[in-house]
Amino acid sequence: MSIISVSNLSKQYRIGARAPYKTLRETLMNAIALPARMFRRNSSEENNTIWALKNVSFDVKEGEVVGVRRKPT
Fold it and tell me: How many domains does the chain have?
């Protein structure tokens, strides 16, 4: 019997400097433009991300201990 069941767990981190604070006007304009930006892919943004976990699935049974280790590249 599994106490914990996880399927297709993924976690991605964006690497780099944080964006500076924006004005209310900039935030609203970005929100309005968001649907159009979702259809475009920014390759530079993809290059600034790293997958910590990707499609990980596991079950933990009572009394088991689980750890996560990075796969060597």
Answer: 1
The CB-side HSE value for 44 (13 A sphere, CA atoms) comes to 1
Domain limits for position 22: 2-58
Amino acid at site 54: K
What are 7-53's pLDDT values in tens digits?
A: 999 999 888 767 778 898 888 888 888 877 766 655 445 568 888 88
User: What pLDDT, on a 0 to 100 scale, did the predictor assign at position 49?
Assistant: 85
Whether this model's pTM surpasses 0.70? no
Calculate Rg over the CA atoms of the chain.
19
Query: How far apart, in whole angstroms, are the C-alpha atoms of residue 25 and residue 10?
Result: 34
- Scan for tokens 């475009």, then name that residue: 40
Beta-strand runs (E) in 1-73 = 2-14, 49-61
